[in-house]
Amino acid sequence: MSPAPTCGDAPAADTAVAAAFAGGLLAGRAWEGADGEVSSAYAYEKGRGYGCEDGREGGVRYAGHSRTRDAILDRGDGGWAVVEVQCLLRRHGFGEGAPDGVYGDSTKAAVRRFQWERGLVSDGIVRPETWGELRK
Fold first, then answer.
1. Tens of pLDDT along 4-30?
2. Where does 45-127 have alpha helices with state H?
3. How far apart are CA 61 and CA 135, in angstroms?
4. CA Rg value for the chain
5. Alpha-carbon distance 45 to 130, whole Å?
6. Is 60 exposed, middle or buried (0-12, 13-18, 19+ CB in 10 A)?
7. What span, in angstroms and rounded, lies between the C-alpha atoms of 126 and 72?
8. What is the DSSP letter of 35?
């Protein structure tokens, strides 16, 4: 039979509880990876609807899913950078439907319209020039 805990064990137990609590807080917070992807505790799921934030940092617009400014995106791509594009297109009045991270025909058409309005090559491919305009 093990001995009953004594008062000397309380600090160790308190430390363990505090560490578990802090870990839970950190797990629920957003993080930014080396590639500029911003995520939260949940993983990207293709086709799921995502919300958009309307944030600015240093005069640059962000929607809360990716900080990239140089990823090249086209039809068939998917992921957090595509969610970011879809959110930013909506902020500029070019998005249709809920951002889902799928770069399909409607996203490509919206990118083309946005590019044309901004005087860019309107090929529907997101390049650094398009990112620069989306981030304004």
1. 555 555 555 454 444 443 444 333 334
2. 80-91, 105-117
3. 5
4. 21
5. 25
6. middle
7. 5
8. T
- Residue at 22: amino acid letter: A
pLDDT tens track for 54-111: 889 888 999 999 999 999 999 999 999 999 999 999 999 998 889 999 999 999 999 9
Amino acid at 45: E
| Amino acid found at 132 | G
Nearest to 66 by CA among 93, 96, 103, 97: 103
Give the dihedral of Cα atoms 26, 28, 29, 35; nearest 10 deg: 100
CA distance 134 to 128: 10
| Residue 69 and residue 131 in contact, taking contact as beta carbons nearer than 8 Å | yes
Q: Which residues are CB-contacts of 118 (< 8 A; sequence separation ≥ 6)?
A: 130, 133
Measured at the CA of 119, the angle between CA 118 and CA 120, to 5 degrees, comes to 95
